[in-house]
Specification:
Shape: globular
Helix content: 40-55%
Number of strands: 14
Radius of gyration: 26 Å
Strand content: 15-25%
Distance between the termini: 55 Å
Structural class: alpha/beta
CATH class of the largest domain: Alpha Beta
Strand order of the largest sheet: 3-2-1-4-5-6-7-8
CATH superfamily of the largest domain: NAD(P)-binding Rossmann-like Domain
Number of domains: 3
CATH architecture of the largest domain: 3-Layer(aba) Sandwich
């Protein structure tokens, strides 16, 4: 059962690359899915998509994911849209097909159920015209892979009402996406129009023998694509203008817009010669990698970018950070046991966490302990609402010990306890313990409670202190951890 209010079950019309990835995003967020797809291989393909999606999410975040939703394959569009909270259509890009499918499905659905379409360029006004209650239809255009890429362009047609747009925004936000609300209906929406311009130029460069497919991709992935992943076009050029800003940039480079650099409205004839050139170059670029291997590589790279940007709380990283806050907020409040250290994480070490020695990378231990500390703080009332009052905790000191190794596949858990405390500070001790009972890593951290308006320490809230005190007093009676309070390089006492 989904813990997202108002989103327990969704109906999906069409699987494939996009529809299947929509299913994965919903399922991994605990939402049940009813999927209609005429492809006889739909079940196999869906299972393969879920393997990649689970793999990506296991590396994307340590936030507590809900229990997975279910996928039920149904035989008709009517079954897919009955008793659901939202519908997403992802049929092939043929206007007549979408019109027919949605007209049929909308007759069976509740009159208030919102329908989204994954179309990458067809106008919503055209798609919705034969629907029953067309006012509840809106384009919700995602990007592949949908289970990772945050952007969802939301565009209504002439008959779409505002409540429908807001509902679509609410749905995609609740599963960790970034809604982009379009104010005007336009062919191709925003992102695809920009990609199309680049694609046209790329085809000309191949057609004219200027560059190969791989060289064009290298030009993007080692050049402007890196900046575009977090700043986009206009802000990048704003910076290029220096202190004088965009006005200076436009004065300097605006005249070049009249130079014959591009062929934006022309497309080379896609004859057999050009098609074969593109296909062979693309195959050479991919080498021996299978499509699933390429998808996994794509996902890994995206996860790395998202996590890097999360550290800056910027761009797609901010979307990820907000998504993690939602996941933490939806999860159950940890219950602390006064008679034992709290258990925050129980998991298997992913292969991607290991270094050149085959051991878990140092930074991953720090990540685990950091998340464990956050789990403890949530249990004593450190919520987003508390943070919004201008009160928080700062880490002021820490000490880590690497006592043994963990490897890919090892099952571990993280134990946390209070070492000491008062109204302004908390001293936590954490251990990463293997399934065989061996302590692989320990860390202790001193946290100070701070009033952000003054930047100075301050007493924590009375409700928080009341939750902390009995736990901390009980933990003080437990045997002292071995090695607590040691300085770096200190040898154990003989």
């Amino acid at each position: 059962m989904s813990n997202i209010p108002g989103l327990k079950t969704v109906g999906l019309l069409g699987g494939g690359v996009i529809g299947g990835a929509w299913a994965a995003r919903f399922v991994l967020n605990g939402v049940d899915v009813k999927l209609y797809d005429i492809d006889p291989q739909a079940t196999r393909k869906m299972n393969e998509i879920m393997v990649n999606a689970r793999r990506a999410y296991s590396k994307l975040t340590l936030a507590p994911l809900p229990k997975e939703g279910t996928i039920t394959f149904v035989n008709t569009p009517e079954e897919a849209v009955t008793d659901v909270d939202y519908v997403q259509e992802s049929a092939p890009e043929r206007l007549e097909l979408k019109q027919e499918l949605l007209a049929r499905a909308s007759k069976a659905a509740s009159p208030t159920t919102v329908f989204g379409s994954s179309t990458s360029g067809l106008l919503p006004t055209q798609i919705q015209k034969d629907m029953v209650h067309p006012e509840r239809f809106v384009v919700v255009h995602p990007f592949n892979p949908v289970y990772l890429m945050p952007l969802a362009e939301i565009c209504g047609g002439d008959l779409t009402n505002e409540a429908t747009k807001l509902r679509a925004k609410e749905v995609v936000t609740s599963v960790g996406m970034k809604p982009l609300m379009l104010s005007k209906e336009i062919d191709g929406f925003i992102a695809d129009r920009l990609m199309e311009a680049l694609w046209r130029e790329a085809l000309w460069l191949v057609n004219d023998g200027v560059a190969t497919a791989e060289e064009i991709d290298d030009a993007m992935r080692f050049g402007p694509g890196l900046r575009w992943s977090f700043m986009g076009t206009f802000l990048v050029y704003r910076i290029a203008g220096g202190e004088a800003g965009m006005r200076h940039f436009m004065a300097q480079f605006g005249p070049s817009l009249k130079w014959p650099w591009t062929k934006l409205m022309d497309v080379p004839e896609l004859d057999d010669v050009l098609l074969e050139k593109i296909v062979s170059q693309s195959d050479d670029q991919a080498g021996t990698a299978t499509i699933r291997e390429l998808e996994a590589l794509r996902d890994d790279c995206l996860v790395s970018v998202f996590q890097g940007l999360r550290n800056q709380n910027y761009g797609a990283g901010q979307v990820l950070a907000d998504y993690e806050k939602m996941l933490f907020g939806r999860g159950p409040i940890p219950v602390l046991d006064p008679l034992a250290p709290s258990v925050s994480h129980e998991m298997f070490i992913p292969a991607e966490w290991t270094d050149y020695n085959g051991h878990t990378n140092d930074s991953r231990y720090s990540q685990l302990v950091s998340e464990a500390s956050d789990t403890f703080f949530r249990a004593i009332g450190f919520t987003p609402e508390y943070l919004a009052t201008g009160r928080t905790f700062y880490t002021v000191e820490g000490h880590s010990r690497f006592l043994d190794q963990t490897r890919a596949g090892d099952k571990i858990k993280v134990l946390t306890r209070v070492s000491s405390y008062d109204e302004k500070r908390i001293h936590l001790w954490s251990e990463v313990v293997r399934e065989d009972g061996v302590v692989a890593f320990t860390a202790e951290h001193l946290f100070m409670h701070v009033d952000t308006s003054t930047g100075k320490t301050s007493p924590m809230g009375s409700d928080m202190f009341a939750l902390l005190k009995p736990i901390a007093d009980a933990h003080a009676k437990l045997p002292a951890p071995i090695g607590i309070g040691r300085h770096v390089g200190e040898r154990p006492a003989k």
